[in-house]
Every structure is written in C-alpha cells, then in structure tokens.
Amino acid sequence: MAEDTALSLLQQYWGYDSFLPLQREAVACLLNRQDSVLILPTGGGKSLCFQLPALMLGGTTIVVSPLVSLMKDQVDTLTGLGISAGYINNSLTEEERRETTNKLQEGEYKLLYVAPERFGSEVFLNTLSQSPLSAFVIDEAHCISQWGHDFRPAYREMSKLREWFPNLGIHAFTATATEPVRADMVQALNLRNPNMLVGDFDRPNLLYRVQYRSDMLKQVREVVDRHPAEGGVVYCISRKDVDSLAATLKTHGYNVLPYHAGLSNEARQANQEAFITEQVDIVVATVAFGMGIDRSNIRYVIHTGMPKSVEHYQQEAGRAGRDRLKAECVLLYSGGDVAKWKTIMGSPTSQTDQVAHDKLYEMSTYCQQMICRHRFLVEYFGQAFEHPSCNHCDCCLGEYEALDATEAKTTAQKILSCVYRVEERFGVQHVAHVLSGSHSEKIKQAGHETLSTHGLLKEAGRKNVVHWIEQLVHQGFLMKEGEYVTVRLTPAGAALLKGAIKDGKEPVLAKPVKVERTKSDRRTGGEEPLSDGDQILFEALRKVRKTLADEKKVPPYVIFGDVTLQDMARSKPRNLQAFRGIKGVGEAKLRELCPRFLPVIADMLGIQITETEIQQQITKLGEAPSTTNRTRRPTAANQLAEKLFASKTPFEEVVAATGMAESTVVKYLCEFIQREGISDPEPWITRQVLDAVREAGTRLNTVRLRPVYEALNPNLPHQEVSYAEIKIAMVLLGNMG
To answer: Which end of the chain is more exposed for a tag (fewer CB within 10 A), N or C?
Structure first.
C-alpha cells in the first residue's frame, strides 16, 4: 500500500497522524482490490476504512447503506472535508436522482451511498456497469444473513454484484457479527478468498449495568442525574413508552426530545438534528434511533426494556463512548420483556423467525446470568476475554451479592414450594406477593394468605423475590407458559423441591447490593478511592479470588464482590476475627474463604503468619453467632474499644488492641464521640485537621465527605487528610453546633 500517501491523506482530510487498529489493513484491502470482511465495533472507525482509499482509487466507491439519515450525515461530513460524495435513495426527487446519476457516470463522485433496494433493479445495475467504479462496500453487512439479528431481504440482492462486477473488490463491513453470520456473509456475497479482519469486541470504556426494573422513572433519573448536561439516549420498546417517558422527563425539567417512526419525517429529522448538534441532551427513542448518529460524546445509554438480541444491545449500547472516554450503559429489564417481544414478533413460522426467538433467549441470559458483562459480550462474539475481571460492570464491581449455596437452595425451595401450593396457576408477581406476605385483595380472594408459604421471604422484600423467581426460570427450575404466563415447575424444579439435584443443576441466586454512585467516581460507584498501596493490595486480593473461583468453577462474584475486596484493601484485617467487620463477609465465607486472603494482607502489613496460626484462629472463631442480631450485639472487642476511647487512647492503639478492622474502629469512634457529645479532637485528629475540615466544609457549603476530601487533597494520590479523619472531624463539628 502507498502508506505514505495514505497517512498524508489521513492527516490532510481527517487530522489524524496514525491509524486505529485494523484500519491500515482494511484500507490495504480496498486499494489491492482484495475482498474483505471487516468487523469493527462502534467507535472503531469503520467509515474511514473505505472513505480514505476512495480518494486514492480511480472511479467511484459505491457504499450500500440501509439508513437514509446515515447517508445524509456521511455525505454532509465528506462534503465538509472537501470530498465529492452523493447518495441515491427515496428522499430524492426524480430530477435530483437523474442529476446524481449523471454525475456518477461522469465520474464526479469519489463515494456514492445507495440503498440496498436499488440493486433489485436491472436498470440501476446497468447504470452502475456504465460508470467508472472502484469498489463496493456493504455497510451493516450482517443484514444479508438469515442467521443475523437484523435480516433484511433487500440485502440478498447484493449476491448479484459478483456476477455483474467480477473485477471489483467487494467489502463487507459491520459492527456486530458472530462467526456463523460472518460465514453466511461470505457465502451470500460470493466473496473470493476474503481477508477476514475482526476487531476487539470489548469496549473497556463502557460501564455495563443490568437492573431489575422496579421504578423505571426513578431508575432512569438516577442515571441521568449522574451525567448532568451530558448527552444520553434512553431506549424504549414501544412508541407509547417513548412519548410517555419523554413527556414525564420534560415535566421534571430535563432537556429531552422523543424519536420514533410514528413521528413525521420533519419531526424526526428536527429532533435528531437537535441531539447531534447538542441543542438537546437527551433523546428518548425506539431502536429506530441511533445507527446513523455520529455524535461521539454520548455519555450514557439506558434501555428501559430488554433488547431483542445481544447484537442489538451491543450496537445500541455502543452508541455511548464512541470517543473512547468513559460512558455508562444501564439496562432495565423484567421477566415480562421476553413475553412482550414474543407478542411483537409472533410465533415463529420460518427459520429466520426461529433464529430471532433464539436470540431473544440469549439476550435474556445476559440479563439473568450474573457474570462479568464484558466477558459475556466478548465471548458471545467468539473472542476470548483474557482478564480475570473487567472492574467495569455491576458484577465485577460487587453490585450483586451471591447467596451461599445453602441459602440459595433453601430460598429456591421456598419459591418452588409456593409455586406448587398455588397450583401452578399464577404468574411471577402473584407468587412474589404471597412469599413476601402481601394481604392484598387478590391474595385474600384466592385464599393464599393462609398458605404455609405466605410471608416465608418477607425479610428479603418483594423485589428480590421477583428477581429470584426470574433467575430460577432462566436456570430451568421454573417455566412460564400459557396465555396468562403462569409459572410452573420443571422436572429439575420438582426434583429440587424434594431435595434432589437433577443433572447436577444447583440454583445460583444473587441480589443487588445498594452502592452509592457519584458522578465523580463512575467507575467504582463508591465514595472513597483506593490509595496507591491499597490498589496494589486490591489487585493481589483479586488474584486470590480468581484462584478460588477457578477451583470452585464459579464466577468470581460468587467468592466476593469487588466492594468486599476494596474494603479488605482499605481496612487490612490482621486476623480472622477482624474480617467480621468487612462488608460482604458472612460467617460461612469467614471460615471457608477468608483464611486464603489473610496471608496476602498479612504479607502487605509485614506480619508473619503460619498455616498453624491460621488454623488456630479458625478454631477460636467458635460457633457462628445468631444472625438475628449479629451486627449490633456488643462483643468483648466493642466493649474494649469503648473503654479505650473513654481513656483517650490513640486510634492506632485501639485497632491493635481490639483486632477490629480500621473502618469498624472509625465507625464505633464516631458513634462514641456523637453519643458523648465530645468536641475535643485529640488524640484522634489534630486541631489543624479539624480547622481545615471546618474551613473546607464552610467554603463549599457541604457536609459530604467527597468534596471536602478533594478540596483538602488536590494532588491525589499524595493524600494528607484521610477519609477517616474527615469523618471524625465532621462528627466533632456537629457536636460544636
């Protein structure tokens, strides 16, 4: 390839001095007239791969595109760069189409965008054959495959290109295609020994979260409020939902517009233009919106319902963070989404229909299977995910907590028993209401308030119960069927109810853990960042977790979530007793898992600990305390801490004497200071720290820790005032009035 020329044009027209991954190879394929398949996820720079070589080739590069809006945007962009380009689609008048055709035949265009339907006309094919052409690029080429997520019959017309233009290169471009789809594309387009270029499907800058939809408006607003004055797209399944949500958000003061096929062409174009030009921050839309959007600084994408395929989700969520900066993708779902899509799609009557239904199940798996979201998406598209954790999704950030095996089995049996006792005649919500102890009129009419399973899971809350029922459906212990979508036991569920395990299947249940999220720390969702030293320890703890997960053949989150490991890294418990103060450490995990983490922490602290000493500590733990009042039961360590606080013992000495985690000692110290009305900071913090916290809090007009922390430590991570000191100072200042 004339690389110097290509780089010169890249700098000249696009202002870049180097290529992104695979762009160089893709450009070479077009210049060498070698057929190719290019799979680059959104944001990977596909367009440049055919636009740049078009400048270097004689004749016109024909680009097949299904979207009118994309054609116009691309042509406007190219024209603005000084590159001659045009398009032919149904938006043109007859006179405009004739003028464009004349320019094509005269070789005035470097690129011409064409809708796939045009290739069904021999008149159009004849016109092309009489024009100076250089290459064919099939954009969104997955549409040609019946195994794909968006099969469009018009794309099958592309099979004629090889016959009509045997000497031109044909290039299939798309952002999403599994291996079967790629093979189908090659066959359908009659590609000759194509160069297969597949980019990395991982989008590490995207933070993926999946939440059970409970209060949609509240959940949407929580995400939007984390991104004030930043661009975002909110997807809904139906036009009705789009109009309703957009109107409601507007009444709450958000800068928002709707977009769906039910609007007039003028309204759709105006709303899209307003978003692209950043006159509006938020677009609430159906999936009709997005594929042709060039706005690169979309900071979040919210799905208020489950998409109908993983490919659709990858493509729609991929609109976020195309500038490779951090962005957030939140998917809200419920079990009813699958039923809604099945109603829209209808019963499968062909192989293509059945593929669509299969993909719906795969998307449901993404929602229900609590594993690393990045790993799921990358492996779905046939690539290996080499990292033990992405540290950038809800599962890896510890926002879901797995029940231990015994609790999961017991909980599942309670749910299965309730389904059996309501005679398998009711849906998910009704079963959840029974288990959570509802006394609604519907429950009373059915006589279900008298069932032995009524209120069995009251403490868990109805939302968690619904979540668990859906997980059991997905894992094959329950099934939904019938016109009214009732829940029934499967053979595996019936076996589990009787205490047996069928085909080695055991239930895995998880529940969300409430984590405070702030705009300033979207990645961890927490308030306190890890120091350099704590980050090193955290990475070492993650390796231990990965080893344990591999041994047990479970996802890492089943061992511990990242929230727990971060707490370990900050608190550095120096004995097993101290692990009881760590978030997410239950008694079973304290005995079974924490002995594997303790040596790593001890090594970081420079403490020598032998296997014999660890076994002695396990023995000293004794019987697990009652869980009914475990968190507030006064212990010998708590009582000792109180005495030491009262005698003005320095903080570090209290930690050493009690063996409690540092975070736990801070908590009890703050409670002690508040209860006793203490205003003297010494010996726990200096008066200088107290005065600094007072000044920062007054200046910023806040009592929140994070702003004060950042004001006092502007050159992080070289911190001078810790979160613990700020917490203590805030309580002291509160006592001073």
So the answer is: C
pLDDT computed for residue 448 by the predictor: 95
Q: How far apart are CA 130 and CA 145, in angstroms?
A: 29
Looking at the fold, whether 355 and 222 belong to one and the same domain comes out as yes
* DSSP assignment string, 78-101: HHHHT--EEEESTTS-HHHHHHHH
The model's confidence at residue 706, banded by pLDDT at 50, 70 and 90, is low
The amino acid that residue 536 corresponds to is: I
In 10 A of CB 447, how many CB atoms? Answer: 9
Q: List the beta strands (DSSP E) in 493-547.
A: 510-512
The owner of tokens 């202002």 is: 15
CB 539 within 8 A of CB 354: no
Residues 218 and 367 in one domain: yes
Find out whether 576 and 598 touch, Cβ atoms under 8 Å. Answer: yes
Annotate 556-590 with b (16+ C-beta within 10 A) or e (fewer).
Answer: bbbbbbbbbbbbbbbbbbbbbbbbbbbbbbbeebb
* Helix, strand, coil % over all residues of the chain, rounded to 5: 50, 10, 40
Q: Which residue has the higher pLDDT, 662 or 729?
A: 729
Q: Give alpha helix (H) positions in 196-347.
A: 216-225, 239-251, 265-276, 310-317, 336-345
| Residue that has been written with the tokens 């070492």 in this structure | 540
CA within 13 Å, CB half, 463: 9
Please state the length of the chain: 737
- Number of domains present in the structure of the chain: 5
CA 582 to chain centre: 26
b/e string for 74-99 if b means 16 or more Cβ within 10 A?
bbeebeeeebbbbbbbeeeeeeeeee
Domain assignment of residue 492, given as a range: 402-512
- On whether residue 409 sits in a domain, the answer given is yes
| Residue 684, CB-side half-sphere exposure with 13 Å CA sphere | 32
Same domain membership, residue 539 and residue 666: no
What letter would DSSP give residue 605?
H
Coil/strand/helix, residue 670: helix
507 upstream amide cis, omega within 30 of 0: no
Confidence band for 24, pLDDT divided at 50, 70 and 90:
very high
pLDDT in tens, 487-533: 999 999 999 998 888 777 788 888 887 665 544 333 333 345 578 88
DSSP-derived letter for residue 626 is P
Q: Between the CA of residue 263 and those of 84, 248, 286, 287, what are the distances in Å? A: 32, 18, 11, 14
Q: In whole angstroms, what is the distance from residue 100 CA to residue 110 CA?
A: 13
Burial level of 615, CB count in 10 A (0-12/13-18/19+)? exposed
**pTM of the prediction?**
0.60
